[in-house]
Amino acid sequence: MHTYQPESIESKWQKYWLEKKTFKTPTDTSKPKYYVLDMFPYPSGAGLHVGHPEGYTATDIVARFKRMNGFNVLHPIGWDAFGLPAEQYAVKTGTHPKITTEKNIERFREQLQAIGFSYDWDREVNTTDPNYFKWTQWIFLKLYEKGLAYEDEVAVNWCPELGTVLANEEVIDGKSEVGGFPVIRKPMRQWVLKITEYAEELLQDLEGLDWPESLKDMQRNWIGKSIGAEIDFQIQGFNEKLRVFTTRPDTLFGATYMVLAPEHHLVDQITTPDQKQAVAEYKEAAALKSDLDRQELTKEKTGVFTGAFAINPANGKEIPIWIADYVLVSYGTGAIMAVPGQDERDWEFAEEFDLPIVRTVQPPGNFEGKAYIGEGVAINSEFLNGLKIKEAKEKIITWLEEKETGKKAINYKLRDWLFSRQRYWGEPFPIIHVDGESKAVSYDELPLELPEVDKYQPTGDGEPPLANATEWVNTTDPETGKPAKRETNTMPQWAGSCWYYLRYISPEFDGGPVDPDYEKYWMPVDLYVGGAEHAVLHLLYARFWHKVLYDIGVVSTKEPFQKLVNQGMILGEMEFTGFKQKGEWISSTSADENSEQVKLSDEEVEKKGDGFVLKGTDIRVDARAHKMSKSRGNVINPDSVIEQYGADSLRLYEMFMGPLEQVKPWSTKGVEGVNRFLNRAWRLIIDEETGELRSELSEVSPSKKQLKSLHEAIKKVTEDIEELRFNTAISALMIFVNEANQWKEIPHSVAKEFVLILSPFAPHIAEELWAKLGNEQTLAYEDWPLYNEEYLKADSILYPVQVNGKVRANLEIPADKALDKEYVLKKAKEDTKVQNYLINSVIVKEVFVPQRIINIVVRPA
RNA sequence: GCCGCAGUGGUGGAAUUGGUAGACACGUUGGACUUAAAAUCCAAUUCGAAUAGUAUUCGAGUGCCGGUUCGAGUCCGGCCUGCGGUACCA
């Protein structure tokens, strides 16, 4: 038997590609280039899951397609291999993270190769390789030299469980993103990168990028630009001014009190003796609160009066200064002017503490709410009265600028990037501390490698694990000979992934992170595919580094990733869940956490109305696909899919499921479907008895009908790959095979072209069929078939005929008459079925859309 | 709360600038092949009704309500639901 046997042909071609280095990136730069990039994986111990191959297959299809279209293609892969899991494993077992990491990479590489991705394996990068992180450290030194990396004592997100500091972005609902452990605020000395310096550029340059609009919006929100004013309030009895930022300077006359963040630097100075104790207690309580606690208390406002007063510069009134934790020290100036009339938070606070409220914008007559934040004209505001918000803002800013007590200002929500972690398994900072000052290690000392340590835990007092390596830590400053201590923090995982796309361009280059000549050729990345979870973290950080590298002349483009696509998550199989309470079935709509969940088979349920119910009852059940997770036991392992159906079926199915960007449930039955298709494609060309070409295959020239089928497929597949619509491309291939299987005779030339357009999707079977068709070379660099419009033309056009918008007949019109309106309409009106609807009626209008449809509008006579 | 995206058969999904809703696939049902099963092949499959007999006709139908249009899954207005992001950002 010579049936389609993926296991043998797939390993055969994988070996061929590797040995022949089929996908080695060309080094000539004469042809047009295409750089297609995957977000490189963290090589976890669990191996690949089915989510990985989704994006990877999409980019692989594009890479193979572009090669066949005459492009030089750069399609690399690598490993984002620093990170917490390997380190936690080291803490538990004492195994060096390097060993764990190598083992995991080995496994990932094998798995990726078993799917037949056309990566250039000579360009693999690994963030933990000293030859790689040498340049991560190099870039850090450049940031340091430019003043973009600084040390600061900041209240950080300290996670005691993980023994490390987390970036704001790594804290979700007051818990660590990794592991879900509680996070508290703790002041520590930290390295910080001044990403805020690039806030405006990061915002502006989003415009030119071909990224999903939703993702650009997420970045815009994250950067959070707001335009307003800074206003100085004189503090009564002190030679100090209190500066606030506000987006509503027009409401200044309504500022009836002020609030400082508990951590504000002026708090202690201005607090009056009789308030000292209350303020101190409040400050202490606020400091102890974790972020989680702060969030849980959002409903109730708390605060303490400092005893001090400020002067409202608009009307000279004395207003009290409070402290409250609803004002954040890290945004704006850490202080606000409170305008309860126009701000809901201030209104709540004013109500709680009986502070005066003055409306300065006229609410509409029927307004019943509290604070009014809508449009309206200014009231109770002297010279602003009667002005609309926008005009009032302009006028008050001009007035403040004249009085030198305020000015127009812009603020960003974006904060500087907390760049150090108290971990072992990360890039060491190329920094030494001499006489309490930090100092850069010289470039020729790079890479600065990690020392060997006995234990990977942080020291008890929060000092990073590197502090244990005393020999490494204690060094001398080569310049002065003074004793020095090495920095013991390490860089976060984002560091290595901020620039890896550049290293692929010239992985061996040792004159800089990237060879400038090749950088100019390959950059920017033409297509970048990865998960949406990196929308604001990785993608913002990488853009920031790229802009710095641009400013120092290392790269030639302002943005790294021209086009970006997020693949949607793959969920587990659809599940039906019924609910029981006290042994009785209850409807899913009335179920709560205490209800018992029962997994049901498809036979036990049926569709009723717009949901599913227990068969023969009205009891609703839950019908949905869930995220794959170990605990739910619905994880699909790509290895077993390959084992059962082959890598080509896995690839094909992942692309056939639906649009790339969409979230979609896995279906094993669906894999069987595409596997059947591959079997049909195989049998179209191969005689299963002999294993040779079928006797139906011959050198005859194709018929008109055959050319039409083929060229329709070529057209659809070509256009769909360009637009990343792989699901419909595959459907076109299926339609072709279904048609071709009816043919008595199959022209050799048609079979060849079909195999070529199948090849980006299912490369193994395509290579095998290509070889069987008598070719000796891989098809990877064959010319992509072009479609010919001539062959697509039909002999006749089918016109649906509508009467009053309802289809009543279908007319077959010869192609040469199809554009003749008179003729087609005459035929339509002659049709017996149509005539039934024309009796006793007057034709009001005749609509003729060439090649499409006819609509005859009538009304009763 | 705010921002973004999405709601189409039993299921995943398809539908050029508004032009026959349901391509392709899964599932299901029936049939062929087989001692039998698997595999394969063929046919049917949005729902409802009618006629009638192996085909045809009519009506409804793309989350809900309304609008524009000869014609709306697609455009406009108002909702509902789900998903993702974000949250005292002054």
Account of the protein in words:
The protein has 861 residues and is α+β, with helices and mostly antiparallel strands. It folds into six domains: 31-127 and 505-567, Rossmann fold (3-Layer(aba) Sandwich); 139-220 and 416-486, HUPs (Rossmann fold, 3-Layer(aba) Sandwich), CATH 3.40.50; 225-412, Alpha-Beta Complex (Isoleucyl-tRNA Synthetase, domain 2), CATH 3.90.740; 570-635, no CATH class; 639-791, Orthogonal Bundle (Isoleucyl-tRNA Synthetase, Domain 1), CATH 1.10.730.10; 794-860, Ubiquitin-like (UB roll) (Roll). The strands form nine sheets. Strands 10, 11, 12, 13, 14, 15 and 16 form a seven-stranded mixed beta sheet that branches. It is globular. The structure holds one RNA strand of 90 nucleotides.
